[in-house]
Amino acid sequence: MRISATPSFSNWLLSVKRYPFNELRATRHGFTCKYVICDINSNEKYSCVPTKNFDHVSILEDLIMQGECKPLPPDMTNIMDYMFYWGLQKSPRWYHKVLSTLSGMLVGPEPCERKDMFMECIYWLVREMIMDSSYDFYSNEGQIVMDAWHGYCCHWYDYNNKFSFQILTSMSQSFVVDCIKDLDSLGFLQPHNAVHCGTVM
């Protein structure tokens, strides 16, 4: 959504270099932002709100300047396009973990690379899938699945960094399901289990 901002807000947005990482598309005449992450009353219970839901731009500007809303740059918008309409239905717990993760990245001292951003958000889904399986996340089996997923996901992202968050998430889910099935079929942990999962790459 292209928002025609007031001069005072636009000047403020351009001067504050942390909203966020200089990647928000902004000029002195306005800014482009599809979503904002809100943390009203600083209770760390985040919500994602489409900017089109704000009837008055001045209200949105005030919330951003007060630090209660953070506008999302393009890569985070790609994540929330998926999470807002599908991730929330799949797992509210995962959805809120992603919101918390993105909010933390927005106030970090350094920009977060697209790959790391995607990986960290998907990590919470993989962690949840392992916990919902017959394996403890902190067990050897759980760590084998996590390590195998990380190598697999990094490999495919590096091979084609144009992958969207949706594609990388879908691939990760399928891979983790297969890894867990492999461990289930073996019935016990053997050294070649990690290799078996990893060879899917």
Question: What is the compact description of this entry?
Answer:
By secondary structure, the chain is mainly alpha-helical. It folds into 2 domains: 2-71, no CATH class; 74-198, no CATH class. Helices cover 59% and strands 9% of the residues.
What does this structure look like?
By secondary structure, the protein is mainly alpha-helical. It folds into two domains: 2-71, no CATH class; 74-198, no CATH class. The protein has eight helices and six strands; from the N terminus they run βαββββαβαααααα. It has helices spanning 7-15, 57-65, 74-90, 92-106, 114-132, 140-159, 165-186, 192-198; strands spanning 2-3, 25-27, 30-32, 35-38, 47-50, 69-71. It has a three-stranded antiparallel β-sheet with strand order 1-3-2, covered by helices on one side. α4 (92-106) packs antiparallel against α5.
Keywords:
mainly alpha; three-stranded antiparallel β-sheet; 201 residues
Radius of gyration: 20 Å
Q: How does the overall form come out from the CA principal axes? A: elongated
What is the N-to-C succession of helices and strands?
EHEEEEHEHHHHHH
Distance between the termini: 38 Å
Poorly predicted runs of 5 or more residues: 188-201
Proportion of helical residues = 55-70%
Number of helices: 8
Strand order of the largest sheet: 1-3-2
Fraction of residues in β-strands: 5-15%
